[in-house]
Fold:
Amino acid sequence: MVEWDIRKLQILRALRERGTVTAAAEALHMTPSAVSQQLTNLARQLGLPLLEARGRRVRLTDGARLVLAQTEPVFEQLERAEAALAAYAEGEAGEVRVGAFATSVPALVVPAVRALRDAHPGVSVRVREAEAAEAYELLTAGDVDLALSLAAEAPSAADPRLTQVPLLADPLDVALPPDHPLASAPGLTLTDLSSEPWIFGGSGPWSDITRRACEAAGFSPHQGHSASGWTAILAMVEAGMGVALVPRMAAGRRDGVVLRDLGPDGPVRHVTAAVRRGGESGRAVGRVLEALRDAAAGGR
Structure:
């Protein structure tokens, strides 16, 4: 029988996640030569090649990917074991590292942290702001314990590494300058604004969300201006330079801009939390998930 070495499998997994030997070595606090040596030893133990050269880089062979696919349940069980031991040893204490996209921090993370201070003061949260897609990358790389992101940016629901928890459907309101002819029009729809110049980022999730919402309404939005920050977007709307879709979670109150609800059939973005599979059984992570659910429910 093959003698399985968990540490060497973790190194192989890190290489898959990080993409290069150097990056994997940095993440594991090892030297690149030590990583290469351990992977050579693992290939010898398993009796099959794990890496193949691709220019100056290396890529995992199909055999290596098969090995990782078959051993994912082992990593899941190790996550559960770590979570169980932490819960036993620390009880209500522990630090949870959260990667969260920008608008979710004031709307969800901060209320959750405040609630945890009162209900479970031994549980601390360390926040790392990240782009929506990056939050999942940080989670799979082990740099955070919980990712707060958008469902549209999530890996496949069948991904064996993650457990995803839907939190809320955040409505998208349309922002108009106060003197716009349709600012107070009854029953406003996106189609009514099809000829307007739209303001959204040149790429990334918000560009995709805006384009998809408009295309679902039957038109392709003309991008009048490109901006990714809500302060800039709303300032341009206020100046009459165009209109924009704004997530309700991000808008708050804004003088000088009219925010119109597009009704029950209007577009939404889905906010989700995710943990590495098995990690949800950790007591501290579970407390943070519970607090985020409560914050999401309170914001609806």
